[in-house]
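Hey, I'm writing a tutorial for new members on how sequence and structure tokens pair up, and I'd like a real worked example in the thread rather than a made-up one. If someone can provide the structure for the chain below, I'll link this post from the tutorial.
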Amino acid sequence: MKTGVVGTGMVGATAAYALVMRGVGREVVLVDKFAKRALAEADDILHAVPFAHPLRVVAGDYPDLAGCKAIIVAAGVAQKPGETRLELLTRNAAVFHEVIPAILRHAPEAVLIIATNPVDIMTHLAARYAAEFGAAPGRVFGSGTTLDTARFRALLGQHLGVDPQYVHAYVVGEHGDSEVLAWSSVRVGGMNLADFCALQGIHLDETIRADIDERVRRAAYRIIEGKGATYYGIGSALARIVEVVLGDERAVLTVCSPLEEVAGVRDVTLALPHLVGGQGVLATLALPLAPEEQAGLQRSAAIIRRAIDELDQAGA
């Protein structure tokens, strides 16, 4: 199966590399405004194929995306140190005016997976532009809080001494400062978190929870301050999402998708647990939240909606 990656900066290139390392699909096509960059990344990743899985890795242009089942959209400008995701909005919105139509002219049946930040708003825009080309609902969605959820599970699993794959915990809302860690719905091996901690004699007070929350919520800022950008985690998350689409796995992922209403906020795009398969987002799952978490989700949705309104007022 064929996958496209549009935008071969650090996120796009690392996602392509992760596809090869995981052995996802059979061919990866890299497209970038700067053709030399795409060619260089394709060559470099191709040289890793003998050490991983037999994928074909090539550089191309938009017409070469024809036949792709899934396309990662990582086009846009990079996040600056100290810059919030929402501050990226005005710099990246114009890019999508060109990129989304160019993709769909040649790959109208592809599932588009948006990675460009701020991902919730960029996904909202991408879905809007894609609808003009007749793209079905659900075929355009963003990485959302897939990475944030992984961070939450990894840190909580580390504290509990449990493999993170057996920690079912979700981060919902904005992929950014207002995201909500859904502590109330955490399950470990099917057990309520409090019951598991009591059984194992594990101390997990509000101070520890606050530390984990801060390390999840502020992770990108720390990484960007230290090395300029985040890419390994999100690249791996994107490769996993593509794997789910290509294999029609019907996995539950906290991707972001346009929704009619969330917590009283209408027409907004944010992350919730979604059932994802070969046709994209198939269903949105209702996650039980504590009252304070529900209020946090409402605040997060309102922040995103305000940013969309500001963009609409600017004529985007």
